[in-house]
Amino acid sequence: MKPVIALTKGRLENQFLDFFKSLGFEIKPLIDKGRKLRVETDQFQFIFAKGVDVTTYVQYGIADLGIVGGDILAEFEPDVYDLFPLPFGQCRMAVAKEKGKEWPDGKKTIASKFTNTTKKFFKEKGESVDIIKLEGSVELAPILNLADGIVDIVETGTTLKENGLVVDEEFLHFSARLIANRSALKIKREQLRPIINVLNQKEEY
Questions:
Q1: Which of 21, 78, 142, 202 is deepest in the core (most CB within 10 A)?
Q2: pLDDT digit string (tens) for 164-175?
Q3: What fold does the segment set 91-174 form as a domain?
């Protein structure tokens, strides 16, 4: 059976395909997939899913390997083997607030998709904050006075700027990561080693 690789849809998917092509692999079936969420090539089977679902498919052995952002691993701490960083998907976790607006004197309210990461960050700073979980555009929260600030992933900062927000503090830096199912890494070691070596751009694994 061919190795199964789960890919995070969207930005990481596109960056992975560029990287994969640079390593000499044929990516046309993956580009021309249309709305298919599972695609088979000559060497691999690919599954396309949201980042957190990629970790679930890998954890439960549906996929042998996965490409996922380091932010997802930090937030959800899935039971997978985190192999190594990949040379794309760079971003950073940051606290942001409205430009020109000061933090309140009392307890801050922070909106974020990354509630566990946010809680850990402020706990390490010795600050107690109220955290509101949002799944969509967290930049709206300060604008609509739902929160004093946000914690979110920042790449270029353009979205923040366009919504009148500025970075107050950066505290984590991430890239895409290659993860593996723990059992598959042992049972299918010889089958997975070649692709792991290639992705790691090293001769040995």
A1: 142
A2: 999 999 999 999
A3: D-Maltodextrin-Binding Protein; domain 2 (3.40.190)
Rounded Cα distance between 145 and 124, Å, is 26
pLDDT of 205 over the 50 cut: no
Pick the CATH number of 4-89+175-200 from 1.10.10.10, 3.30.70.100, 3.40.50.300, 3.40.190.10: 3.40.190.10
Find the Cα–Cα–Cα–Cα dihedral 116, 121, 124, 125, rounded to 10°: -140
CA distance 83 to 108: 36
User: Tell me, what's the pLDDT at 203?
Assistant: 44
CA nearest to 66, candidates 75, 57, 74: 57
pTM of the model: 0.90
